[in-house]
């Protein structure tokens, strides 16, 4: 990528030098409401207009990306806040005593209890009689 960008830069510099060498004729530049007339070589006019266009494009691109830059600032500050909270919670969890595994039911046992409650809900609760029975 560096080689490509350098090659393009050299190509533009070469084009600029060719424009400057071949267009040395003086040009009169008059801006309508102003009474002044500026005489300058054609290549300075072309290079000046190109530079003005590049700067205008960079400015418009910078202005258009302001929403993205704001969103990045907000999310980075939120990420830093969440990282601080995670560190605090890890410290709190490290200070609490570890729970014993005897009190905690195994995942298989919990699944069996859930299935029993779904398959036979009538066995878990006392029998109810409906209004017609």
What does this structure look like?
By secondary structure, this protein is mainly α. The chain has a domain at 18-65. It is 68% helix and 8% strand. It has helices at residues 2-22, 42-64, 66-95, 107-119, 121-124; strands spanning 26-30, 37-41. Strands 1-2 form a two-stranded antiparallel sheet.
Topology (SSEs and partners):
Elements lengths: L1 H21 L3 E5 L6 E5 H23 L1 H30 L11 H13 L1 H4 L9
Antiparallel strand pairs: 1-2
Helix pairs in contact: 1-2
Briefly summarize what is shown:
The protein has 133 residues and is mostly helical.
Label this structure with key terms.
single chain, 133 residues, mainly alpha, 2 strands
Sequence stretches where pLDDT stays below 50 over 5 or more residues: none
Approximately how much beta-strand content do the residues carry? Answer: 5-15%
Largest sheet: 2 strands, antiparallel
Shape verdict:
rod-shaped
Q: What's the β-strand tally?
A: 2
Briefly note the structural class of the backbone.
Answer: mainly alpha
- Share of helix among residues? 55-70%
Radius of gyration: 38 Å
Q: How many individual helices?
A: 5
* Distance linking N and C termini: 84 Å
Strands ordered across the widest β-sheet: 1-2
- Return the average pLDDT rounded to an integer: 84
> H/E element string?
HEEHHHH
């Amino acid at each position: 990528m560096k080689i490509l960008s350098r090659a393009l830069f050299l190509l533009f510099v070469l084009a600029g030098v060719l424009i400057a060498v071949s267009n040395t004729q003086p040009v009169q530049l008059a801006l309508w409401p102003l009474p002044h007339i500026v005489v300058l070589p054609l290549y300075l006019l072309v290079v000046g207009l190109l530079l003005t266009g590049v700067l205008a494009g960079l400015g418009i691109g910078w202005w258009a990306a302001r929403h993205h830059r704001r969103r990045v600032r907000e999310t980075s500050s939120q990420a830093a806040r969440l990282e601080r909270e995670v560190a605090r919670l890890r410290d709190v969890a490290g200070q609490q005593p570890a729970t014993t595994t005897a009190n905690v039911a195994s995942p298989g046992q919990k699944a069996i209890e859930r299935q029993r409650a779904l398959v036979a809900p009538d066995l878990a609760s006392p029998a109810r009689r409906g209004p017609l029975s």
